[in-house]
Amino acid sequence: MRSYVVGGAVRDGLLGRPVTDRDHVVVGATPQDMLALGYRPVGKDFPVFLHPDTHEEYALARTERKTAPGYHGFVFHTSPEVTLEEDLVRRDLTINAMARAEDGSIVDPYGGQADLRERVFRHVSEAFAEDPVRILRLARFAARFPEFRVHASTLALMRAMVAAGEADALVPERVWQELARGLMEERPSCMFAVLRDCGALARILPELDALWERQPPHQDTASAPPAMRVLDHAAARELPLEVRFAALLQDLDRDPAAGLQLVMAVCKRLKVPNECRDLAQMSARERDAVRNAMALPPDGIVGLFERCDAFRKPERCVRMLQACACAGHGHPGEAARLPQLGQQPRLQDLEQQPRLLRALDAARAVNAGEIAARCADRRERIPAAVHAARVAAVEAALQDVRD
């Protein structure tokens, strides 16, 4: 019985990156052997055990055979006779098909170290084509390691998979899971570039794929659309997932109403979590109001806040403003600075989103409870009175800046 650290922990260690999770493969053991040593079983489809002390995962070496379309159609086989090389050959990329023995030596039967040096994503074997999730995983790795390129043979294999309909077998929950992880990587635009290059983006996110076809006449359709620069800017600012997702989708169509419908379709199809869905829809709906904030009168600004439920959920409104601010970075020279909630902008920065933040601070300072008490005899007047007070507060705050 021998155990090895495998996969991402080996890859990241060789790249000098932090290693947080370690997966292990055990060769020459049976489930009974693991139980006798105190390991706790957790695997459903094949034997995986938790170490009694470290609680790290230890999987018995296994082989697999595809029996049906999609990524659920596999039969796994484990036995003490399965070798480490047989286990590693079923993995997706050579850089993920390395192992580190207990003495620290690296087992690299498929050239993972060479591909790390060359910064190449290369599939280990033709078994890559049996699991469509691997297309998403490779694209996600491209967002994490933007200096890597996809090997020509692997890209050809991915294109063949898409043409064969393998990408159509992906369930929405798994697509969202991989996309969400990729959105949080260093340069998420690389994920979408890979998905488009192999044809998968048109199958899983046709609304986004269409942006490449909407490029101005002086740019070819191979050039990244502004949405990709917007997304990378959101990532560079280390904004949360819901802001990155909203920033990505806010310009799916030049017409805001049509764009909102497209965002709603994406969220429904991918079963996007409520927090991300709501912010994406709000950003698409209000994008023009935010971009034209300098022309909005106080009454229009308060109306915007009311539509966004900003007085109950101010942080979500700020997230929406952050997503809209990122859009300025889709076109060079249009960037807008965005302070945090409660932080007063300098005079020279008071435009568009910062203007709205100042207005939001002023409107939120209105004591709605006091107004309601004064109007207790005529309750139907309360909403109008609160609205009027907020408009007056916003007008005064913006007048102070002009003065």
From TrEMBL:
Residue ranges constituting the Poly A polymerase head domain according to the UniProt record: 4-121
Catalytic reaction list: a tRNA precursor + 2 CTP + ATP = a tRNA with a 3' CCA end + 3 diphosphate; a tRNA with a 3' CCA end + 2 CTP + ATP = a tRNA with a 3' CCACCA end + 3 diphosphate
Cofactor: Mg(2+)
EC class: transferase
Residues holding Mg(2+): D21, D23
Classification via InterPro entries: CCA_bact, NT_sf, PolA_pol_head_dom, PolyA_RNA-bd, tRNA_CCA-adding_enzyme
tRNA nucleotidyltransferase/poly(A) polymerase RNA and SrmB- binding domain sequence ranges: 148-210
Annotated ATP binding sites: G8, R11, R91, R137, R140
Gene3D superfamilies named in the record: Beta Polymerase, domain 2, cca-adding enzyme, domain 2
A GO term, aspect molecular function: hydrolase activity
Binding annotation for CTP: G8, R11, R91, R137, R140
E.C. number: 2.7.7.72
UniProt keyword terms in alphabetical order: ATP-binding, Hydrolase, Magnesium, Metal-binding, Nucleotide-binding, Nucleotidyltransferase, RNA repair, RNA-binding, Transferase, tRNA processing
Keyword S-adenosyl-L-methionine: no
Anything else known: A single active site specifically recognizes both ATP and CTP and is responsible for their addition.
Function as written in the Swiss-Prot or TrEMBL entry: Catalyzes the addition and repair of the essential 3'-terminal CCA sequence in tRNAs without using a nucleic acid template. Adds these three nucleotides in the order of C, C, and A to the tRNA nucleotide-73, using CTP and ATP as substrates and producing inorganic pyrophosphate. tRNA 3'-terminal CCA addition is required both for tRNA processing and repair. Also involved in tRNA surveillance by mediating tandem CCA addition to generate a CCACCA at the 3' terminus of unstable tRNAs. While stable tRNAs receive only 3'-terminal CCA, unstable tRNAs are marked with CCACCA and rapidly degraded.
Record-stated family: Belongs to the tRNA nucleotidyltransferase/poly(A) polymerase family. Bacterial CCA-adding enzyme type 2 subfamily.
Protein name: CCA-adding enzyme
Organism from which the protein derives: Massilia hydrophila
Gene, per the UniProt record: cca
